[in-house]
């Protein structure tokens, strides 16, 4: 998951070109780091602050419930920041799982086996990316 400063940079990039007043910007940036402002080294706290249900992963219903229960306490820009934070976490997790999952089975590989794996993986990635580029022309 991205660190707080990364969430701020993601939020800054997301907001680029939008016209918001200073208060709205502050609320958005606070929302973008809010889930990480707690003791996220504690699993239960992390699950609560990131709207995760044990064994089921992220639950949109928990995020929606949080927004409804706290609607009078924060602006809509705060909640948009929280949503961007959660989206960023989910995107990073999906990307890491998708692109680096082959490393999980390489613990007992020799150096040459690892190099062979990386070459095969990179070739398949390049071929996939070339196909996408060709299809989008």
Task: Give your account of this protein's structure.
66% of the residues lie in helices and 3% in strands. It has 137 residues and is mainly alpha-helical. The chain has a two-stranded antiparallel ribbon with strand order 1-2. Strand 1 and strand 2 form a beta hairpin.
Features:
mainly alpha, two-stranded antiparallel sheet, 6 helices, 2 strands
Chart the SSEs and their pairings.
Layout: H1 4-15, H2 22-33, H3 43-49, E1 52-53, E2 57-58, H4 60-69, H5 76-100, H6 111-135
Antiparallel strand pairs: 1-2
Helix pairs in contact: 1-2, 2-5
Write a concise synopsis of the structure shown.
The chain is mostly helical. The chain contains six helices and two strands; from the N terminus they run αααββααα.
- Tell me the total number of β-strands: 2
- Strand residues, percent: under 5%
Q: Name the average pLDDT.
A: 80
- Biggest β-sheet, characterized? 2 strands, antiparallel
Strand order of the largest sheet: 1-2
Structural class: mainly alpha
Helix tally? 6
Query: Which word captures the global form?
Result: extended
What is the helix fraction of residues, given as a range?
55-70%
